[in-house]
Design a protein that fits this description.
homodimer; about 270 residues; three-stranded antiparallel β-sheet; DNA-binding
DNA sequence: CAGTGGTCTAGACCACTGG
DNA sequence: CAGTGGTCTAGACCACTGC
């Protein structure tokens, strides 16, 4: 059970291939083999070699490809699975996570009814209020890491549950990756918006950061959500990221929380 | 590299020791060895054999104790570490997580300043408004899984940052596990409340569920938080759990979010 | 039945900590 | 330097899926 002498060489080779500043660098930047494999898998996901919903090669196949033991690719896949980028199914294979599946339709929407089952009033109704193309304002530019003057798509919509308007959202998307996205396509698409992004624009939202505040409804917001002006609303500002931590969406949501609440588990 | 014949026997023995209904049960309830080891470690944590801040035995020692390979206890510890119950420190050992350390002082408080660094105004000032012992109301009874008529401790306090009152909290604790907790001890204790619970009452909060809403400030709340009545406040209802999913605290917080926000990462 | 992921072991070596 | 956790390998066997 000796570690074969080539193993060490292989690690070094991979390392130098990824860090590039190896010898005289101040930080040797050691990263274990499985992290490097994780990076290679991530690249294949990012490039679209394996698309959402599809299965990736089996562990033994990847081990052969990367010239590494099965245990090492297993650990790499374990990490990606724990980040919800991959989905393991025993006996079947490992699959690229997707927003298109029914069960994870609303993974990023944490507003749930106070009582009763999720979706007991049926699916949400989506109403596009407006959708236009503009130059990004400074705060949008900063949030999406754009250059000043870059074009963005802006949409405003209302989500209703059981006929009751509940969520008002303003959404900003960088125009370049979403070329061809129109109000019609947004309006006609049945299902989660992030599923549309995956299938049509090869953009998969992987994680998001949210800043939550309590605010008073403006007159315009009050009218759209059918509450009194000044009524308390939950303000949820979300920046969503693709693979490699690229910000790809800014969303400002205003939630009515009289019969629903934002649910969070902290540990 | 044969799996020794005793290994299978050992697994079965452990299994029957934990599931008790083994043979004729409808569900065989197979659970892997490392999950069983995880349970045994959890028991030792729960019983106080290893206390918060202390180190647990080394991996090889535990492997010997449980008559299992090091890799198996490693996987068990990995899970507990990912749940923030244990903390691994290379070269030093594995430690029981604690709320008493500076770095994790506010792990459960997700309200952060809009700009600047956390804690730039120095530590929070804690002001106990009242602290009394009563019979639990029905909703408190339900949240803490008590029997009707059980005693609870109730406290109300205000947290201020840099002199500005920011958080108003009502806290309910079951009286039994917290026997001897008085307003003085709460008021005099410097540091996170959960650290006090650990050292004085052997109660470690492990995870929590929060329900978040936007509400209008009542006159009483408005006065304590120095806002106008009806001003929007973030309502955060938290149920905190010890080991083994026992609810141990109900906390209703009202947060001012004019210069701070509730930060959440969703993935 | 073959193929997938899941568990378990045993052993070697590496990285980090402290005396 | 010894002791700790961290990485990597190789191989056996188990549980689950679908043909």
């Amino acid at each position: 059970m000796q570690t074969p002498p080539e193993a060490k060489t292989r690690v070094r080779a991979l390392q130098s291939a990824m860090t590039s500043a190896n010898q005289a660098g101040a930080a040797p930047a050691f990263s274990p083999l499985y992290q490097q494999i994780r990076g290679l898998i991530l690249n294949s996901l990012r490039s679209g070699e394996w698309k959402p919903g599809e299965s990736i090669p089996s562990e033994v196949e990847l081990a052969t490809r990367y010239r590494v033991s099965q245990g090492t690719v297993r650990k790499a896949i374990d990490e990606l699975a724990s980040e919800n980028l991959l989905l393991r199914r025993q006996g079947k294979g490992t699959f690229v996570a997707t927003h298109a599946e029914q069960q994870v339709q609303f993974r990023f929407l944490k507003l749930v009814p106070d009582a009763g089952t999720q979706g007991s009033e049926g699916p949400a109704q989506r109403t596009i209020i407006e959708c236009r193309r503009t130059r990004a304002s400074t705060d949008v530019t900063r949030a999406l890491a754009l250059r000043s003057g870059d074009q963005v798509l802006q949409a405003r919509r209302v989500l209703s549950f059981g006929g009751a308007p509940t969520i008002l959202e303003d959404i900003w998307l960088p125009a370049l990756p979403f070329k061809g996205l129109t109000a019609e396509r947004l309006a006609n698409y049945q299902g989660a918006m992030y599923a549309l992004f995956e299938t049509e624009f090869n953009v998969r939202m992987v994680r998001a950061e949210e800043k939550i505040r309590a605010v008073a409804a403006s007159p315009a917001q009050a009218q759209l959500l059918e509450v009194a002006p000044g009524a308390p609303l939950l303000s949820v500002e979300r920046v969503a990221y693709t693979y490699q931590d690229e910000p790809m969406e800014l969303r400002r949501g205003y939630y009515r929380t009289d019969t629903r609440h934002y649910r969070n588990d902290v540990s």
